[in-house]
Amino acid sequence: MNDKADENDRPGFHCPVPLDRYPGVLLAHGGGGTLMHRLIEEVFVSAFSNLGLEARHDGARLDVGSVRLAFTTDSYVVKPLFFPGGDIGSLAVNGTVNDLAMCGARPLYLSAGFILEEGLPMETLQRIVGSMRRAAEAADVRLVTGDTKVVDRGKCDGMFINTAGIGIVEHALDIRPASVRPGDAVILSGDIGRHGMAVMAVREGLAFESTIESDCAALAGPVLALVQAGIEIHCLRDPTRGGLASALVEIAEAAACGVHLDEDAIPVRADVQAACEILGFDPLYVASEGRFVAFVAAGDAERALALLRAHPLGRDACRIGSVTSGGPGPVVMKCRLGGSRIVDMLSGEQLPRIC
Amino acid sequence: MNDKADENDRPGFHCPVPLDRYPGVLLAHGGGGTLMHRLIEEVFVSAFSNLGLEARHDGARLDVGSVRLAFTTDSYVVKPLFFPGGDIGSLAVNGTVNDLAMCGARPLYLSAGFILEEGLPMETLQRIVGSMRRAAEAADVRLVTGDTKVVDRGKCDGMFINTAGIGIVEHALDIRPASVRPGDAVILSGDIGRHGMAVMAVREGLAFESTIESDCAALAGPVLALVQAGIEIHCLRDPTRGGLASALVEIAEAAACGVHLDEDAIPVRADVQAACEILGFDPLYVASEGRFVAFVAAGDAERALALLRAHPLGRDACRIGSVTSGGPGPVVMKCRLGGSRIVDMLSGEQLPRIC
Predict the structure, then answer these.
(1) What residue numbers bound the domain in which A38 lies?
(2) Which of A191, A199, B138, B173 lies at 20 to 30 Å from A173 by C-alpha?
(3) Are residues B53 and B108 in the same domain?
């Protein structure tokens, strides 16, 4: 047994194949699972760590003068551009607003970088820009700077959008994976998997009895409700690429804790569950774009739930589990039909280009 | 004659064809010329102006608490990824650092959003990431947050990179086109056109006697030297897409002033001039990535020149013209061979995908 095999066999380390065995980038390197994490650790963190890169969080926290800022970025390459419940424009605004919210920050300003494909109908661009405007107004953020590039036909599937965001941190909480403690309550703000299945259904031309709409929404409202009420929040995460399972495993590993989940407590809508069964997906790994997980001190759990349920975006909030000392990493789920199983990070790519 | 024709005939308005006559996006909409400006004005500004978009500047200036920030973004789609004097990585760092510098800000933090093509050699990615690290270290900025997406083969020519940047404004100057006044000196920090010709030559497989290297560099150093010396700077701009001509026309129009240029004073290296002649380009419209124009109060012009010439990136700085009251917009150039001509904004696309 060589060193590589040893390394890959140690518990909590989920990528069976080292990066250097892949000579080229795979779609799975963007999937939010273990391959993406290896790429980030081995290429980006190793290059940028001394430049301050915070790799295991949705954004960076920065002190500028006397002001505490959060700063984050995401590119959006969703295919198709329009899907039930949203489009690449609303997704690009809400996604970055949510990354700021997951730092516990109040989102203030966004930038927008457009990469447009030659031949993109001007009317399509205008619809998407209008959608961004409405999403920014709804989230109370200002879109203050931008950039436009045009590339040749066939080179970007209509358009890609990057947004970066600045938010202000107005509390003394240290919201990040390392703050998670055994005993913390794990609270989920609503049902999971809608965004991924909405995009997948329209992309594959699947018609279900009802149309599954993306849950795409800006989450700063319910998050700031918790912050302002003084809830002792330890970590926040929106389960996008890789889904709820990958988000929980990543946080548990970074916190050197375990998580016990109760499958029965995790809300999945019947239509999403049915679509997942037809297509062979596990909803635990399917992206949401309007949900978040909060790790809060156990004593604040009931109050946090009540606050979330009073908010339109947290009506179905529920406690789905607890943090244990059994780390680093194992997320164990008590199954609906009895028994329990280890929940792993997504190993590759389940749903390419859903955000 | 209808209203549209009237509008397009008025002086200082350089786009002969209204946007709605283009049903789709053209490469020229990304070229830095009049078509791009129409796209920005008619699509982005009309949607986002009430959200605070500053369209005629390289970045936004924001007050957050007691701190004055600059915030900017650019996407980079340069083809090919590597060119003499740089690559998409160093360009993505320096370009955004320079946009912050053009706001008179000290660059502090960058984000990086990568869109990678399936199949991109891992070694290529690592080379480019290494180049970004070196450029960030040289420019003294921290790369603090990022994002990676992967798209299918053929969908992004290897990789696109977006960077956004935050800088701090540590002076009371109001650096923007509207601050430009008749009588201001127009100072150029060095020779123009190298970046565009370097990319073009390698893309077209052209071999000249000497290799033209991109001037790609971070400009915060020489800009902050001017700021710290108390030079009364009114406006700064790096002549990237659209070249020096488009940058000057845009500023003159926004300032409702004119500009008188002296062709003889504008430095163009002999190899760049020769390559432009062979390919039929006018160096006034060819992008630089390590040069800037400063509009300064006339009384400070000599001191500004001395400061710039003392800096390695400003050794060839020179005064190329003056601001006149003859606005809005005409940029008039006294030609080397006698006579003078009106310098217009680039009307479409001269060099696609050079940044």
Answers:
(1) 1-57
(2) A191
(3) no
Task: Name A264's Cβ contacts closer than 8 Å, sequence gap at least 6.
Answer: A334, A336
Domain end marker among B39, B57, B75 = B57
Q: Which two tokens stand for residue B150?
A: 């992967």
- Give the number of beta-carbon pairs within 8 Å between A and B: 289
In chain A, DSSP assigns E strands to 60-64, 67-76, 82-83, 86-87, 106-117, 142-151, 159-168, 185-188, 233-237, 258-262, 293-296, 318-324, 331-334, 340-343
A143 with B20: Cβ contact below 8 A? no
- Look up residue A179 and give its DSSP letter: G
Residues of B in contact with A54 (CB under 8 A): 144-145
**Tally of domains in chain B:** 3
CA A117 to chain centre: 27
Please give the full DSSP string across B248-298, using - where no structure is assigned. Answer: HHHHHHHHT-EEEEEGGGS---HHHHHHHHHHT--GGGS--SS--EEEE-G
H-assigned helices in A40-87 = 46-48
Same domain? For A149 and A181 the reply is no
Q: How far apart are CA A50 and CA A48, in angstroms?
A: 6
Q: Which residue in A has a C-alpha nearest to residue B122's C-alpha? A: A24
> Are residue B72 and residue B156 in the same domain, yes or no?
yes
DSSP string, A236-249: EE---TTHHHHHHH
Q: What is the ipTM of this complex?
A: 0.92
Residue A34 has φ and ψ, to the nearest 5°, of: -65, -35
For residue A304, is it left (φ>0), alpha (ψ between -120 and 50) or beta? alpha
Nearest to A36 by CA among A14, A11, A59: A14
What string of pLDDT tens digits covers the 355 residues of chain B? Answer: 333 333 333 333 333 445 556 789 998 898 888 888 888 888 888 888 776 676 667 789 999 988 999 999 999 999 999 999 999 999 999 999 999 999 999 999 999 999 999 999 999 999 999 999 999 999 999 999 999 999 999 999 999 999 999 999 999 999 999 999 999 999 999 999 999 999 998 988 877 777 899 999 999 999 999 999 999 999 999 999 999 999 999 999 999 999 999 999 999 999 999 999 988 899 999 999 999 999 999 999 999 999 999 999 999 999 999 999 987 789 999 998 899 999 998 877 677 888 9
CATH code for the domain in which residue B89 is found? 3.30.1330.10
